[in-house]
Amino acid sequence: MVQIMIRPDLRLRILLALLTALCVPSFTSAGAWMRTEKTGFFSFVSKQNYNLSSTQSGYLEYGVSDKLTLGAAIDVDIQAGAALGGQGHIFLRRPLPWSRANSVWAYEIGFGAKVRETQQSQFAKTSLHFGKGVKLGKRNGWFAVDGAVEWHFGKEQHRAKIDVTLGVNISARSKAMVQIFTDISAGSATATLAPTYIFSPKDKKISYVAGFEAASNGRDSTALKIGVWHKF
Prior knowledge:
The protein is mainly beta. It has a single domain, classed as Beta Barrel (Porin), CATH 2.40.160. The chain is 7% helix and 65% strand. The protein contains 1 helix and 13 strands; from the N terminus they run βαββββββββββββ. The protein has one helix spanning 8-23; strands at residues 5-6, 40-49, 54-65, 68-79, 82-95, 103-116, 119-136, 139-152, 159-169, 174-185, 188-199, 206-215, 223-231. Strands 2-3-4-5-6-7-8-9-10-11-12-13 form a 12-stranded antiparallel beta barrel. The two termini are 30 Å apart.
């Protein structure tokens, strides 16, 4: 059994990050589609990097109404069995009136905290999301563009992200998508290519996810990822 040891000086900071993420009014980059009222979605993804570090990510959202989705997300970075830091935040998503029959717009706002080694910073997050149903040959699919900015209150640099997603329904039980993540901070940009396959067993609300990520800043950022999605 693998044991994860959290350094004593990080325990309090990670706890503070979680409390900040869960106790401040709202945000995440989950797309333009609203969660239906009284339905929810949870995911857990484990990402193993080339340099043997890993990131464990949890995400939760719930439809309070058809026009309000609330959620929370947390990422924990692990190296040699020890948690080195992470971040957490809560969010709200609301639809925008520009939506049409097969395309949707939404915005998100939220607050959270980030921990890295001995540093901690709080941030606000704002984002704009667009999604559209598309046809890829004879198959249905979707296209999405998500833009977000993290506004840090401390010494941490502000951070901007632009994510582009193209997905396709391969069959009733499987999907595939290709994503490009662009991360801009301190005057430099990094692009990441992330293909993903999603399989849903028959009559189940659980889906299994597998994929990899290849970043432009070197092979140390290359990663394999596996995860579980659950609708409730």
